[in-house]
Amino acid sequence: MLSKLQKASDKARLFFPNTALVATCFQKYIHMAKKTSSSSSKVQALYELCKRNFTPSGTPPPSSQAVHDLCSLLDIVGAADVGLEEESSDDDRGLGIFGLNALNRVSRWAQPITYLDIHECDSFTMCIFCFPTSAVIPLHDHPGMTVFSKVLYGSMHVKAYDWVEPACFQETKRPGYHPVRLAKLAVDKILTPQHGTSVLYPNSGGNLHCFTAVTPCAVLDILSPPYREDAGRKCSYYIDYPYSTFSSRNGAEVSDEKEEYAWLSEIDTPDDLYMRPGAYAGPTIQV
Q1: Is the separation of the CB atoms in 219 and 156 below 8 Å?
Q2: CA–CA separation, 192 and 150 (whole Å)
Q3: 116 forms bridges with which residues in the sheet?
Q4: Origin, by domain of life (predicted)?
Q5: pLDDT for 60-84, tens place per residue?
Q6: How far apart are CA 270 and CA 263, in angstroms?
Q7: Phi-psi bin for 108: left (phi > 0), alpha (psi -120 to 50), beta?
Q8: I need a surface site. Which of 20, 36, 157, 262 has the fewest CB within 10 A?
Q9: Are 221 and 147 in contact (CB under 8 A)?
Q10: DSSP per position, the chain
């Protein structure tokens, strides 16, 4: 097992040294991928674009052009391009006690999320998470990181927050509980392949997010820079509480719709995060 999400999410960081050069190369890769419909060319093009733009340092942040180019390329990558076959969602989960063969249904619920490593280096990691229906990656953060996510098949619910700045903390007065910190809802929707690529940034776009599989699904992730605890990029997990849970008794108020806010409390790595490594079966990257 992969030391939970932390190992499973090592990814990269980007640096944009030469806009004209990268734009030219990117157009070449896009043209090649579309012209040949080659899975290998798409995966290789992703690698080359990441290699040009990401560095281990994490600074400077990616340019808007670099983000646009990578999203455009990810948007044309499908499950078959990375060696995946779409899993059927025609099962009896969600039918409650009226579903047939309850024992089989329970065993399917217990299936783990599978992590597939496409490429990992000091600057970036490309990987895939394959979810059975109802599987969850709990609310977690990506400190100082930019993350690109593309749903390859199926549908996935994403709920994501960004911290409110300046930071606003409240004591919970519960033994063993961390103080709660105010966050604002950034994303709360179901994503499918038709939605294209989602991007979150260190301080915006939903840096703290939770994935829940609505149907069997897979998501291709590129993270930049990788998780690295000694550099302050440690993955932390959280539980969210409605804004009204703490605000009424301690005076914290917000001017916007209160439904857009929540209090987040850090928790230990969840024991029920069930993840296993799998074998990537897509095109080999030429390094």
Answers
A1: yes
A2: 9
A3: 128, 278
A4: Eukaryota
A5: 888 889 999 999 999 999 999 999 9
A6: 18
A7: alpha
A8: 20
A9: yes
A10: --THHHHHT---------HHHHHHHHHHHHHHHHHH--HHHHHHHHHHHHHHH--TT--SPPPHHHHHHHHHHHHT--GGGGT--PPP--SSTTSGGGSS-HHHHHHHHTPPEEEEEEEE-SS-EEEEEEE-TT-EEEEE--TT-EEEEEEEES-EEEEEEEE-SS--EE----TTPPPEEEEEEEEEEEE-GGG-EEEE-SSSS-SEEEEEESSSEEEEEEEES--BGGGTB---EEEEEETHHHHHHH----SS-GGGEEEEEEEPPPTT--EEEE---SPPP--
pTM of the predicted structure, to 2 decimals = 0.79
> Rounded to an integer, what distance in angstroms lies between the CA atom of residue 285 and that of residue 287?
6
Per-residue tokens: 219: 């998501």
Q: How far is CA 267 from the centre of its chain?
A: 19
